[in-house]
Amino acid sequence: MTSASSARDRVLGRVRRALADAPEAPEVTRDYLVSHTPDDPATVLDLLHENLADYRAGVHRSTRQHLPALIGELLTGHGARTVVVPPGLPGDWLAGSDARLRHDDGHLTPAELDSADAVVTGCALAVAETGTVVLDAGPGQGRRALTLIPDLHICVVDVAGQVVASLPQALPRLDPTRPTTWISGPSATSDIELDRVEGVHGPRTLEVVLVVE
Amino acid sequence: MSGTFIGMPSFPEAARDAVRDTTLRGNLRHATHTIRAKRAGAVAELDDWAQLREAGKQIKDRTLRHLDTHLEQVERAVTAAGGTVHWAADADEANRIVTDLVKATGETEVVKVKSMATQEIGLNAALEEAGIRAYETDLAELIVQLGDDLPSHILVPAIHRNRGEIRDIFRDNMADWGRPAPDGLTDRPADLAEAARLHLREKFLRAKVGISGANFMVAETGTLVVVESEGNGRMCLTLPETLISVVGIEKVVPTWRDLEVFLQLLPRSSTAERMNPYTTMWTGTTDGDGPRAFHLVLLDNGRTDTLADEVGRQALRCIRCSACLNVCPVYERAGGHAYGSAYPGPIGAILTPQLRGTATELDASLPYASSLCGACYEVCPVAIDIPEVLVHLREKVADQGGRGHRLERAAMRAATWLLDHPAALTAGERLASRTRKLHPRRLPGPGVREWTNSRDLPELPAEPFRDWWKKNHE
Ligand code: SF4
């Protein structure tokens, strides 16, 4: 039985031997675009809206004032009676809903999450060109399991501070030490004859609310 | 899974069987042609595709050139973030490490998210021997596992199965693995997906150990990235208490920023999407969120041999998007199983003989499993010159002397088969003619010339490949 450290030495040794005569590789040229979208907030927002909808997320625009009523309508519309609430979710977001709230204190089990109908969260960032919302487990988002198990995810995007056009603009704004989940539409599969079916294991319905002031 | 890649017939024999299977051919043609057209559209959306492709190639080349440094860096970063790093020189070592880790948890079942690396090393069989049941959770992998079958495509491992076959597999076999298929299951894709959701959910919710691979690992931060569609990846990466990721050493990228290139290249090349539905990134462990224990197993298993070959090492740039499979006229006819490993299609034809060597007839025949039409190079998002590597590997097979020549002859029978079925090539031809700009100009390469110049071969096609190729390219 070989020890773990000797496997390490063997692999690294082989790598070094393999590269002994290899020529130096050139520096990376990054002449690709930082963004493919005109630098205009309204255009970027429209693109985000369009791309989210293209991947079958529900997309809604709302003012901050109207947000609780809209969330209430969405929950009722989907027949959601139990809602998971991550820590740090602004208190008034659910003021317009009479659904039963299950506040996550870190102890809800997977089975308990499975018995909830919906989850409402904010996000860290939204990327227009790919139609993506990014969650980083920050306040108002909670741990990753919360947005995975309930069948309906309502995600609120603060348009003024959270929308970027492109991936090269998104990555510098994210903290790699936090677990992140990038969500582009509801879960989907194309495994059966490459026929796209929405909704396999993640939430089958994704509703994104774009909050504009 | 009782199916195995070991001891399979060489490419020519396996391919001939596949060509006779008209259902298989129909399934494959439909699937590859669908994804091909969609991919072209997704790529055309980005004006800077050529620049992204070049950057992706350069990042990978530079990483490989300093692979030892980046591996040490990723080890430090993962360890600092609460993970444990293991090194495995070959498949047996990796399997033993993973098996021991699972045993240490006291669990006898694990949930798995699709991973080429664990397929390459035959992890499921190793776990089974140790009394541990591995549940595949990707829909296509589930179809393969329930059908006691082998995957045939990188991205869509059950691409060779149509909806009726899938319905039968679910109906007949789900009960043996857990929750049975619903009564009266139809062959509608949505109903089949629902059946899979129900079948797997109980497994996800009770799982204590998850096993994954990774698409990328970032050296400077220790972050691992898994790109997926269904949410089964998120389930496996988030809910278990222990997570074990088996990752090939070539998957490392130096910086966080590098992801801006690969997250643009990969989804558009593979599923033809602007972005796949879910991407999970994690760095070590996080208190109160996800697994409490994280193990990273860094896998060599022939990669360093590949790295040592100055022409062949470019195969290690591969990001497993499967675009090269979808455009390959040989893959379309032969199917994924003929390639005899976890890596089918053009990438398999250059990767497998390098990872495993060319000692067996199957592995030696793989570099001949191509018409060198160049369509694979054209679509490859990291610009791997697959025809160049194929020709290089053919030379190596021929250099093995007497034995090599025998293997070569077997491989030439594959060429004969291919040329006897010119329809197999027309799709690739059409594509190639539309993409001349990026097309390698040296065709037909030395490998082809060797086939047609060999006088003592009884089964040469009526029309030399060179002439045929020329005529069809005017
Ligand atoms: S070789 Fe290129 S095209 Fe083929 S799977 Fe790898 S990255 Fe994709």
From TrEMBL, chain A:
Lineage of the organism: Bacteria, Bacillati, Actinomycetota, Actinomycetes, Kitasatosporales
LUD domain sequence ranges: 112-211
Species for this entry: Streptomyces griseicoloratus
Protein name per its UniProtKB record: LUD domain-containing protein
InterPro entries registered for this protein in UniProt: FTHF_cligase-like_sf, LUD_dom, NagB/RpiA_transferase-like
Domain of life according to the entry: Bacteria
From TrEMBL, chain B:
Annotated stretches, region: Disordered: 435-455
Superkingdom assignment: Bacteria
Protein name per the record: Iron-sulfur cluster-binding protein
Alphabetical keyword list: 4Fe-4S, Electron transport, Iron, Iron-sulfur, Metal-binding, Repeat, Transport
MF terms (GO), sorted A to Z: 4 iron, 4 sulfur cluster binding; metal ion binding
Sequence ranges assigned to domain Lactate utilization protein B C-terminal in this UniProt record: 394-472
Domain 4Fe-4S ferredoxin-type intervals: 315-384
NCBIfam families: LutB/LldF family L-lactate oxidation iron-sulfur protein
InterPro entries in UniProt: 4Fe4S_Fe-S-bd (IPR017896), 4Fe4S_Fe_S_CS (IPR017900), FTHF_cligase-like_sf (IPR024185), Helical_ferredxn (IPR009051), LUD_dom (IPR003741), LutB/LldF (IPR004452), LutB_C (IPR024569), NagB/RpiA_transferase-like (IPR037171)
LUD domain boundaries: 71-285
Gene3D superfamilies: Alpha-helical ferredoxin (1.10.1060.10), NagB/RpiA/CoA transferase-like (3.40.50.10420)
Any single GO BP term: lactate metabolic process
Record bears the keyword Translocase: no
